[in-house]
Amino acid sequence: MRNIVLTVSYDGTRFCGWQKQDKAAAGKPVRTVQGELEQALHRIHHEPVAAIGSGRTDAGVHAAGQAVNFFSPIDSIPVQNYIPALNSTLPHDVRVISAAEADAGFHARFSATSRTYRYFLCGGRQAYAHEMPYVWQLRHLPDIANLNAMAACLHGELDCTTFSAAGDASVSKCRYIEKAVFYPERGNIVFEIAANAFLWKMVRSIVGSLVFFDRQKKDAAFFSEVLHARDRRLAGPTAPAHGLFLWKVEFNGERRH
Amino acid sequence: MRNIVLTVSYDGTRFCGWQKQDKAAAGKPVRTVQGELEQALHRIHHEPVAAIGSGRTDAGVHAAGQAVNFFSPIDSIPVQNYIPALNSTLPHDVRVISAAEADAGFHARFSATSRTYRYFLCGGRQAYAHEMPYVWQLRHLPDIANLNAMAACLHGELDCTTFSAAGDASVSKCRYIEKAVFYPERGNIVFEIAANAFLWKMVRSIVGSLVFFDRQKKDAAFFSEVLHARDRRLAGPTAPAHGLFLWKVEFNGERRH
Q1: Is this structure's pTM higher than 0.90?
Q2: Catalytic residue (one of B11, B22, B58, B219)
Q3: What angle, rounded to 10 degrees, do the helices at B220-229 and B202-215 form?
Q4: Inter-chain contact B130–A11, Cβ cutoff 8 Å?
Q5: Which positions 156-195 of B are in contact with A (Cβ < 8 Å)?
Q6: N or C: which end of chain B has fewer CB within 10 A?
Q7: B120 contacts chain A (CB < 8 A)
Q8: Strand pairing category for A136-137 and A114-122
Q9: Residue range A164-170: average pLDDT?
Q10: Given this model, what pLDDT does residue A254 score?
């Protein structure tokens, strides 16, 4: 069996998230990215094939570079051919960007050493219609310098309980944050955050809190207190899902493909 | 009555084009940008208000900068306030980007002196899922130098019959083309074309022909012959609607707002 790793992009708008859900439990079929990918893999392999993602993304969250691996019983076709084979049968809101061979022990989730998310904000101007599904439209232009001063607190090994969600079942709330920075790009503000892993809804809680605190003229000292209090009740509102992209997944510092 | 000019952006995906259509004739309600805008104008004015566009865009075609004017009986509110007032009642796939006062004689269609369209092509790579509704995905990377050599024929006063559509009712097929150029941008190829006005489906016919001829290794001399033959049967296939954006409309060399 070949172990194949894909970079997968999806538009989360019409998906109930990455993870396949039990149709019977939900009462009616639920559209998920994993479900669509496994259907496409089944079609080209003529047998069920499991798609393993680097992590779950929630309903409405997009991906530019989700990492996915699967074991293929076909050993006759060049790995690059999986790209058109899958894309020709997948719906347009899921696209395979690249494909590569991986070691037998490679696992998109357990082998991943770093995840990078980008969150897109539009403030101080009206977003174009075609940007609306992919940016959080703010009424006001936030202060990037202040956002970055607060975001600078998000570095290294941190207990992220403040930015955890009610239903989070993680044993440890500690994560190693490598990068957390805001920068302007083509009329938008992008927040890029990289960590070894993230708690459920953590990025949206961080972005929502930073924007909310900036609007309230809070500073980095205040944000540091909130962070170190390890109390979810101190976080700001969670930012909407549609501004968030799983941007890339790294494996021992490499992008694999 | 105040004459107000808006810059309007829309995502054409779920629209049957700009122009309002007769519901009775179509048998069921048809969703159009003009229809949505006039509903929103009616809502904020409490009376019917006509929205005049700089030109019709077809089903599936987007706009970053459609120019629209309307006559408002309200003289109490600052013109900038029309932006949030309209956006709060419009669906998300239509956004008012700017608003300005215009002279009584200003007419978005008759006063427009130049229209610029951009067509987005993705070749040599797989487009991301969130780009798919806005680019024409090509199987191969076209030759930009050759496309530009051909496009250089599109300059000045030209009889554009070759790129006209079967149903075109225009008396004259002559248009003045100011600019027609391909350039790379963020992994895509953009075709920008500006003219005083365009024939129905002309931009899509030009883009489709240029890409088709480039793929067939035709050169500028060939394209020039096709152009000057004034025969629609010599044009290539029409490019899909979803790669096309009405980018901006100018009035005596100005963008008005």
Answers
A1: yes
A2: B58
A3: 140
A4: yes
A5: none
A6: N
A7: no
A8: parallel
A9: 85
A10: 62
